[in-house]
Design a protein that fits this description.
This protein is mostly helical. The chain has helices at residues 2-67, 77-136, 144-159. It folds into 2 domains: 1-76; 87-162. It is flat, with a radius of gyration of 46 Å.
Amino acid sequence: MAELQRLEAKRAALRRTIEEQGRQLELEQQAAVAAGEKAGTEAERVPILRSEAASMNAKADLLQKELGTPLSSGLSDADAALLANLNRNKIPQITADLGEKGSVLEPITDEKQKLVALLRDNLRIRRREVASLLEVNRGGVGSSNRAAEVCIYKQTVSLYPL
């Protein structure tokens, strides 16, 4: 009897294994069908993708060739004549004017920078003077005029920060 129960248990375990493998086989078959369908869809797209790639390569070649051509090649005759006139007459004149104005502007800019530096130095000196006046006049007797001057100095200095 024990032998029979053992065989029945073994038989039940084998049935479960067979059922599980059947389910596994079914899932794998479904996956294989899905992969086959996807491969078919991808295979259909290959010619389309190849033609798109060829089109893009042709466009890239055309653009590469266009890089070597001057921009004036697409101009009308009147526009080309105007461009030639500008290149011949106006551009050298404008370049010369720019050089002259730059040479005039350079010393003025240098002078401005020197003056700004001088003003900043003077402002620093004046701030130190105001600070020392504030220290001297703190709490002193009869310093109402000095206090008013100090107040004016403070306002002046605060208007021009460094």
